[in-house]
């Protein structure tokens, strides 16, 4: 069998769709906590969103991720698995040796997957966050609001994903679709390394030697542990990314990654990374085998 396998792409597609459907409400809460105002803690945020926007408020911006993240996950996890398999076979020159894993192969494959994830995922995350954040409470006082924001008040800025894309391209150009890409690179490249490498080694360690194929319990346990490791280290930069991408709905507050980090640290200190909400769905949505 060649090194390229379509099964990895199919697994990523199914996992991506499932993760969006199950996890989007908590992702909305996470985004509001990270980039919104006056939400307090997690429970307070949930109550506030439900009181102001009903249960449908938790699903704002879901249609675009649902249509895109399944494809995104398919590509990212397929790229990782096939890159790692290609590197292993290239070193060993034997297809039968493709199950052996070296740290250098896993590191390179994870970095490739991380870069691909940013290229595909930055616009998806941007649209999702803009739609999630456009009805957040905002204060006109001491904020340099855009004129159209003052006119709109609490009315939604975007009418849907397509209108959001058109508005961003019209007002910010194509580069606007990649707002926060620097922070996303700093989140995803290390994040995928700290997910895939522990996952592969933990899965190999937990799986009984008698098993000839993936063991479901080992896959779930290794995936959960690897996700916790990855998300725990990626949260601070995820906060920065969310704030940069939400920036521009009503106002332009940050000049870049360093400015966002500086302002956030000055106002909140190290607790900037406290509101995780949930782990990144994409790091849990497709498990390479």
Automatic annotation (TrEMBL):
It comes from the Eukaryota. It is a multi-pass membrane protein. PROSITE patterns: SOLCAR (PS50920). InterPro entries: MCP, MCP_dom_sf, MCP_transmembrane, Mitochondrial_Carrier. Solcar repeats lie at residues 3-86, 101-205, 214-289. It is found in: Mitochondrion membrane. Keywords: Membrane, Mitochondrion, Repeat, Transmembrane, Transmembrane helix, Transport. Belongs to the mitochondrial carrier (TC 2.A.29) family. This is Solute carrier family 25 member 48 isoform X2. It comes from Vulpes vulpes. The lineage of its organism: Eukaryota, Metazoa, Chordata, Craniata, Vertebrata. The gene is SLC25A48.
